[in-house]
Amino acid sequence: MSQLETAMGMIIAVFDKYAKTDGNRQALTKAELKALLEKELPNFLSSGKDKDAIDKVFKNLDENGDAQVDFKEFVIFVASLTCCCHKYFEQKAAQ
């Protein structure tokens, strides 16, 4: 597989790993999202200054208001975060 195909497979695998915790493989609960962020994106929440960070992230990701984050909502989050990282590193390289 190509690097991009591997990356896509990894995103699917990470989502599935955490979504299946409560038996519903189609969506992440708030607790599952918290576990995913803490283990898979530890630097994303590393500042620890905002105690409501998980609640805010969850609310923003739950686009349809069903109290779950489905795969589409999760992928939008990963893509947005990736865009922010890309922009950050472009700016750093330009300095």
From TrEMBL:
**Does the keyword Metal-binding feature in the UniProt annotation?**
yes
What GO CC annotations are associated with the protein? cytoplasm; extracellular exosome
Gene3D superfamilies given in the database record: EF-hand
In Gene Ontology terms, what is a biological process of this protein?
endothelial cell migration
Residue span, EF-hand domain: 49-84
Q: Which Pfam families match?
A: S_100 (PF01023)
Q: Which GO terms describe its molecular function?
A: calcium ion binding; calcium-dependent protein binding; transition metal ion binding
Q: Which UniProt keywords apply?
A: Calcium, Metal-binding, Repeat
Tell me what this protein is called. S100 calcium binding protein P
